[in-house]
Amino acid sequence: MKNENLESEIIDRLKSKGVEPLIGGLIPEKYTAELLGYSPSYFRRLSSGGGQVIPYILRGNRRLYRVGDIATFVAKTIQ
To answer: Other CB atoms closer than 10 Å to residue 16's CB: what's the count?
Structure first.
């Protein structure tokens, strides 16, 4: 599956939950965890402990994830 298709699916799923990606396609950690099937608390512990699943961007004390990075991670795991 191409990343463009995955990115569209990610955005559609977020919109169905009432979540709009931030400028640059950034998504808060809670919603990223839910999209990937992780509990938000487990996902946060992974990232805090250096075992991040995908790269993140720090803004203040919040971790934000790019739609493109999420799509790349998903593409790798479904092959």
So the answer is: 8
Q: Based on the number of CB atoms within 10 Å of its own CB, is 77 exposed (0-12), middle (13-18) or buried (19 or more)?
A: exposed
Per-residue pLDDT tens digits for 10-59: 999 999 999 999 998 999 999 999 999 999 999 888 888 877 789 999 99
76 contact partners, CB below 8 Å, separation of at least 6: none
pTM, rounded to two decimals: 0.86
Are 53 and 15 in contact by the 8 Å Cβ rule? The answer is: no
